Amino acid sequence: MKDNYGRNIDYLRISITDRCNLRCGYCMPKGIRLAPMHDILTYEEIELICKAAVKAGITKFKITGGEPLVRLGCPELVGKIRSIPGVSQVTLTTNGVLLGKYLDELMENGLDAVNISLDTLDRETFRKITGCDDADKVKESIRLAVEKKLPVKINTVLQKGINDHEWESLAELAKEAPVDVRFIEMMPIGYGKQCEMVSGDDIRQKLKELFPNMEEDHSVHGNGPAIYYKIPGFRGSIGFINAIHGKFCDQCNRIRLTASGEFKPCLCYGEHVDVKQMIRDMADESEEEKIAQIEKIIVEAIQRKPQNHCFESREEITEDRQMVQIGG
Q1: What is the pLDDT of residues 273-322, one digit of tens each?
Q2: Number of domains within the chain
Q3: Strand pairing of 254-257 and 273-274?
Q4: How many CA atoms lie within 13 A of 10 on its CB side?
Q5: 317 is in which domain, residue-wise?
């Protein structure tokens, strides 16, 4: 479906939980209040929403959190969404800690690709960023996913004075394995507003100096706004998602669904369209009628998409929740 600015919205990111087994400060700072479980969408409600989304023209779905794999039954949900007629792709974003445990089950249920968050290769820095000592589990999950030939993207957020010196070692993960390493600029959402962001352009320039033959990679890598580069001798590619220094709103193809049932047309604005209460108010209606009404709400959310985000003007950002509460 086209939005009011002619963009084809065919991608829905679904947060299935606001819980996580890590405690990365820029996403889940101390003292955060999570939603009570009765406010979280059930899997049956999510499946209904996906069926309605397909009718509205959405064919690609990303399962996110929080950490989606801390919610029991995630692999089965992937299978249910993947089996909906018209769905072309279901992918997952995870911190990787539990991925090794569920990888076979996820792939059996039709998972098409996985994004794994990894901000550091150093064990102590990992503990400092996440509050946990699970770096080895994440690295093993990456190894297993590559071994099983599941397409892998590694998402890295650099912070000044914490892990920004690791740009070269993180990039070189794409040298030995056919993975996409993506440097994502810190988004000024929630606690992220207080973190000192590292410019993707600066990292790209450093890589260009180190690898003068690095060239832009124009092949399709997925649904996101990353710009990719190929380095001679590397099996994978390097990507940059520069939300601040490389505005990509004219190519935005997505809306988001929070774990508590709100459609978010844009990440940086607080505006949302609630779908959960409508579904629960229609408990006695047929599935066909529920899907028809949900489709109307999805169309409304798409029509409310703004032309641009305002991350470069922090005083204009109206989303005041933490990243884990709205879905990454």
Answers
A1: 999 999 999 999 999 999 999 999 999 999 999 998 877 677 777 877 77
A2: 1
A3: unpaired
A4: 14
A5: 11-326
pLDDT digits (tens, 9 = 90+) for 17-59: 999 999 888 888 788 888 999 999 999 999 999 999 999 999 9
Do the Cβ atoms of 112 and 59 come closer than 8 Å? no
Q: In this predicted model, what pLDDT tens digit does every residue of 298-307 receive, in sequence order? A: 999 999 999 9
Element (H, E) at 94: strand 89-94
Place of tokens 């408990």: 283
Q: Is residue 2 one of the residues assigned to a domain?
A: no
In whole angstroms, give the CA distance from residue 247 to residue 241. 9
Cα(149)–Cα(239) distance, integer angstroms: 20
Q: Which residues have C-beta within 8 Å of that of residue 283, sequence separation ≥ 6?
A: none
Please spell the DSSP secondary structure of 163-191, one letter per residue.
Answer: TGGGHHHHHTHHHHSS-EEEEEPPP-SGG
Cβ atoms of residues 57 and 9 within 8 Å: yes
Which band of pLDDT confidence, cut at 50, 70 and 90, is reported for residue 192?
low
CATH of the domain at 152: 3.20.20.70
CB atoms within 10 A of CB 16: 26
**Is residue 158 in a domain?**
yes
Judge if the upstream peptide bond of residue 66 is cis by omega within 30 degrees of 0.
Answer: yes
**In what helix (H) or strand (E) does residue 147 lie, and over which residues does it extend?**
helix 135-147
Residue 248's CB is within 10 A of a number of other CB atoms, namely: 15
Q: How far is the C-alpha of 41 from the C-alpha of 112, rounded, in Å?
A: 23
